[in-house]
Amino acid sequence: MTFAPEHDVPIPYMQRTRDYYLALGYGAYRWAHFDDVPFTPLGTPLARARVALITTAAPYQPGLGDQGPGAPYNAAAKFYKVYSDATGAVPDLRISHVGYDRKHTTAEDPNTWFPLARLQEAVKAGRIGALTPRFHGAPTNRSHRVTMETDAPELLRRCREDGADVAVLVPS
Amino acid sequence: MSLAARHLETNGIPTVIMGCAKDIVEHCGVPRFLFSDFPLGNAAGRPFDAESQAATLELALRVLESAPAARTTVQSPQRWRDEASWKLDFADLSKLTAEDIAERRKEFDVVKAVIKTKQTDP
Question: pTM for this one?
Fold first, then answer.
C-alpha cells in the first residue's frame, strides 16, 4: 500500500499567504470567519429553477493596462461596485485584477472561471429551468464591511429583481 | 464571495459556491461548496475542456439540490495533474532571496497605492 505524498492536500492558502506577507513585512490579514452558517433548503426543483450566476471577474476596461490572459496582477482593473450584464450575450470578462495562479494556469479560457456557456447548455438540456436575464459581478475589495453592508445587499436586490430561485457563485 | 453567499442564503436564496480555495471558504463558513483541487482560477473546470467543465457544473448542481445541511463541502474527483508538485509553488518563500522579497514588497506597495486611489475616487 502506498499513501499519497504529504503535500498532496488542498493548498493551505491562509497559512501560506500569512507567512508570505509577514516575510514581506506586512501585518497579518484576517479572513472572514463565522461560527453560524445560514441554510435555505431548495424550494424549487432545479429543472424549474431560475439560476443566477455571480462572478468576481471584471469587465474589460480599455486603457487600464494589460488585462489579458497571463497579465501580471493589475490592481487598476479592479472594480468597486456591483455590476450586471446580460446572460444572453458573451461578455468580455477578465481576471487580471485577482490573484489566480499565474504559474500554473493562464486564464485563457473564461469557461474555467465563468461557467456561462455550460449553464446555457444545462438550460437546453432541461437540467435547470432558466438563467436569470443578467449575471452579476461582485467586487473583490478587501473590506469585509463594504462587502457585507453594501455589495452583498446589492447582489441580493438584483437577484430578487431578476426572480432568481438559486445562485451559483464562482470566485475567480 | 462567501459573504455574498451567506447573505443570499440568509434571505431565502439557496446558493452553491464553486471554488479552489478550500481553507478560506470553509473558514468563513458557507452553506454549500463544490471544491475543485485545481490552481486558483479554475473553479469551473479545466481550461479548454468542456467535458471537465460540464462535469464540474453538474456536481455543483447536485450539491445545490442534495446538501443536507450547511457547511456541505464536496470535492470534485478531478485531478489537475497526476502528481501534485504544483501545490508547493503558491507563495513559496523558500526560493526567494532578500532582494526578491524587497522587490515584491515594492511591487505590493504600488498595488496598494493604486487601490487606495481608486477607492477614494468619487
Answer: 0.95
